Amino acid sequence: MNVTDISRIANPVAEGERPLALVADDLVAYRQVVRGALEIAGYEVLEAANGLEAIELAMEYPVQLAVLDVNMPGGIDGFQVCARIKRDPVLRGTKVIMLTVRQEHQDYARAEMTAADDYIPKPFRIDQLVASARALAA
Asked: To bridge 114 with a disulfide, which of 15, 75, 83, 133 should be the other Cys (CB 3.0-4.6 Å)?
């Protein structure tokens, strides 16, 4: 399934009613792909290039969904961002999808410990990310 196919099945959401999502990944190409998938799923999207920027954006613009890469520069990884979001009284209801090349058992366990809502390995299918984002919004 490609982006055109997904666009045809997307449920358009009226402007001004779109939930806000955050994508945090140090690779611009992945941020762009994730942004496109989340826009198809009906979200407005903010982008962060590292963990600190992700935390700052989430605090300033409370988001309904965060899609976080695990490995990011700057000393704050995606697991730490997820834990911070889930501990914050304003953000604790934010749904979090971890998106990563890391697929070891301990990585899945750490995602569970930080209360991530989904864990999608890279490379991923766009329709898989769209489906997860929609399911978490329901």
From this structure: 83
